[in-house]
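User: Can you predict the 3D structure of GntR family transcriptional regulator? Sequence below.
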Amino acid sequence: MNVGLSLADQIRLELRADIIGGRLLPGMPLVENELAGSYNASRNTIREALHCLGQEGLTRYVRHKGVMVRRLERDDLRDLFRVRRTLELQAIASARPLRECQSDHMLDAIEAAELARDREDWRAVGTHGLVFHQHVVALLDSPLLDEFFTNVVAQLRLVFCTAPDEALFQAPWLERDRQIHGWLADGDTASAGAAMACYLDDSERLLLNMFDPSLRH
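Assistant: Sure. Here are the predicted structure tokens for GntR family transcriptional regulator:
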């Protein structure tokens, strides 16, 4: 756990990581008593952590059922992509040729996604793909934006998990991530930006088509 954070914040970060990793799925209950036992924490501490996750758009309280991992709706999806376009396209437009460590971080995410694809672990493919996009936003060199975008990533993961065929959704993007990385490494921000804009348009369109039934109540 992270030194210097309150126990509630540490639990919040672990639960958010479980959402990003696809271990907590939309609609799953988050039971205070169970979490208190798992984390050796008081119910008040768990309640604080769950309240913070709710403020981040990752959980919701359902009357007579308690706190559950959130299911996103169509308008939420559109808003997530509005944010992605703002941050990812700006990050690319203002980027300089990648430093070695930046390039390595992106390549590590791409290669991890490819290994997951080879073993047909499509949930992991999606998670590692999102990590690549976190490294794109990190080009803005803003810890505040990095933290904000991590919440966006967690919400995107909740959308991916509801796909009727996650393999069908995840398969097209790996080669495009590699191309974007290559242009960024070469300092060709115009090509990288155009490719990312097309990528986000295609991804949003596919998600809306695939997830319309599950995004409606």
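The first helix runs from residue 7 to 20. The chain has a mean pLDDT of 91.
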